[in-house]
Amino acid sequence: MTTATAPGRPATADHAAKTPREPRKRKPMRSPYPTWFFIPAGVFYVVLFLIPTVASFYFSLTRWTLFDVEFIGFDNFVRFFQEPQLVTGFVNTFIYAFLTSGLKVVLGLLLGVFLSSQIIGRGFLRATVFFPVLVSTIGVGILFQVLLDPFGGPINEALAAVGITGPGWLTDPSLALISVALVDVWKGVGLATLIYIAGMVAIPAEYFEAAKVDGAGAWNTFRHITLPLLRPATVTVVLLSLIGGLRSFDLIWTMTGGGPGFTSDVLASVVYKQYQAGFFGLSTAGNVVLFVVVAAIIYPLSWWLNRKEADQ
Asked: What residues have CB less than 8 Å from 149, skipping those under 6 apart?
């Protein structure tokens, strides 16, 4: 037996009226628990980076000691750019940074490809290449200061044994900065090699097998497969090496102290000499200049390299 519906009123509307509406499902609330793990890192970032950076910008505008602070505006920056050895420091900083980063990229790439192949003693060779990275920079500087001593140093003594007169590696103004740069490359190329080895391991073996089936030689395989797929590793090595080169101080100061004269001074050593002389505000302004120089080079370069990688 069916029930009659009112004239003009559709049955579907009557059914819909009698059907109870389903309650809306509330979206589950996200727990703040995972966010708490970011708090320690955030605290360290604020305390160890953000606050010192802001304080450095402020103190660069003052003449300060441990007991007194006097605001003097941009006078420190004016005096800093009037330093006679500043131009030499700037030029040497760029020479040192680009020389060390370029050599680390080239040598790290070659060593990474070589140590990723099936060779005897591969694990030992990897450990040997990476070992200098673990050694203290000050220790490396003292060691090579002895090895490169022009009078009785083991390297010049070995050259003299075969009839070659060794140069003044750290006393010749034209060689001092390059000598320190080569020691820096020796110490840091292990990290670049490790990054490239990680990039090589991430490349699927099927690409190399397909290239072998197609008859591609070693050079074509390296050029068209290995090199393009190692681009992320190359970007990482370039940025890390360039940042380290622009900020380099400890190895240069240990081996040459910025000498002979000011010929191996870099921007960081110029700043440190001002600090030694008691010009704390002036040295702080120099640190701000160094920070701006590094940021002005690294951020556009990082954007450009990552953009090209995304386009590919």
From this structure: 156, 170
State the DSSP code for 224.
I
Cα three-residue angle 211-217-218, rounded to 5 degrees = 100
Q: How many CB atoms lie within 10 A of CB 210?
A: 13
The candidate with the shortest Cα–Cα distance to 144, out of 104, 181, 105, 174, is 181
Q: What is the pLDDT of residues 92-108, one digit of tens each?
A: 999 999 999 999 999 99
User: Within a 13 Å sphere around the CA of 132, how many CA atoms are in the beta-carbon half?
Assistant: 17
Bridge partners, 69 (sequence order): 64
Q: Which range has the worst mean pLDDT, 6-15, 64-73, 231-240, 264-273?
A: 6-15
Name residues whose C-beta falls within 8 Å of residue 13's C-beta, 6 or more positions apart in sequence: none
- In sequence order, which residues have a C-beta less than 8 Å from that of residue 20 and are 6 or more positions away? none
CA 3 to the chain's CA centroid: 81
Give the predicted TM-score (pTM) of the model. Answer: 0.81
Residue 280: which of 28, 62, 111, 16 has the closest Cα?
Answer: 62
Nearest 5°: CA angle at 160, between 155 and 165?
A: 90
pLDDT of 205 reads: 85
Q: Closest Cα partner for 242 from 193, 301, 190?
A: 301
Answer positive or negative: Cα dihedral of 310, 112, 99, 240: positive
Q: What is the per-residue burial (b if ≥16 Cβ within 10 Å, else e) of 118-128?
A: eeeeeeeebee
CB-CB contact of 138 with 274 (8 Å): no
DSSP state of 22: P
